[in-house]
Amino acid sequence: MSTAFLHIGTHKTGTTTIQNFFESHRVAVAHHGVQYLKGPQQNHSLLMLSLFEKDAWEVHGKHFRLSFEKKKYFEGNAIDHNLATFTRSADKAATENADCLISGEAIYHLSEDGMTSLREFLMCRFDKITILAFARAPLEFARSYAQEALKYRRTFKDFLVTPPLPNYKKRIGKYVSVFGQENMIVRPFSRALFPQGSVLREVLRMVGVQAAESINDNKKQEEQNPSMSLFAARLISSINENMHHLSYDQFNQKFLKPLRNIDGPPFILSREITEKVIDLCQDDLQWLRSTFDIDFNEQNTDIDALPPHISLTSFSSQEVSRILYFLTMDQQKPS
Questions:
Q1: Is 332 a residue whose pLDDT tops 80?
Q2: Of the candidates 302, 227, 216, which has an alpha carbon nearest to the alpha carbon of residue 262?
Q3: Rounded CA gap, 29 and 21, in Å?
Q4: Does residue 53 carry a pLDDT above 80?
Q5: Does this model's pTM top 0.85?
């Protein structure tokens, strides 16, 4: 039986690593029986939103943030071209009786009608559809997501108002309705449980191509979004809060690139943000526990050991001196 594997993330569970690997080693993995379907980018999220939603631009246009994304997916004959390319790659896999893989952590934005259209497209070609997903513990997710969000102009004050939450039911629940729970494999994102601590190796085993693990041997480490220090994060948050006039490109070149690698204590969220994350996740955790028997217990977190929120948004005189020194040294570097 041929299987269409639909890897849906979720967010902050190594999706970039997985997508980059399958895109870069498309031919080699195909020799092992799994074909990574083709689209404009290795992440299939925007492709699925553009192809399978009725009135896709009106519904999902807000997810296409950059002008080149709009051009790749909507302008000119992009939709017709992408549909033809995607269909050919799916038909090729089906004709060869091979399995296929689609990967996109934002596919959940599809309406149930759009997701049903995707299901029908795949069922016409493959015998079975299997949904693959990982769920990350709420506090781990919040710390990872917050660091990424800071790079896109968010602030610690934003996180206090709208804490970063994994939203398991929102991001996974729709697939249960459309594809059926019996066709889903949802596992906790824990490197301690993965072969050699690798989520990529875990996915290769989930799709039945364990032999392809050797392709990744001696390659660069999997971490695509390395952690920043707490000091760097506080600086970036302050810049985001006070320099609204900067475009993203200006912000990225002038501040983000030099600052995000500055050393210091590891990134951590304040006790106030952490308390909100734990409190707001309870219903979602219950849903995850009752639906997929995954139990994350965050109640044992030592809240008092975390810094107060005020310490993330203010700077001591010693820290100001360090900032000035860093900026002076940075200006002395050759351009």
A1: no
A2: 227
A3: 9
A4: yes
A5: yes
Q: Give 101-121 pLDDT, tens digit per residue.
A: 999 999 999 999 999 999 999
Angle at 66 between CA 60 and CA 68, to 5 degrees: 105
Q: Which of 263, 278, 268, 281 is nearest to 308 (CA)?
A: 268
Look at residue 39 in the predicted model and tell me its pLDDT: 96
Task: For residue 321, give both structure tokens.
Answer: 């001196």
Comparing CA positions, the residue from 236, 262, 241 lying closest to residue 325 is 262
- pLDDT score recorded for residue 35: 97
Write down the pLDDT at residue 222. 53
- Torsion angle in degrees (nearest 10) through CA of 81, 87, 91, 94: 150
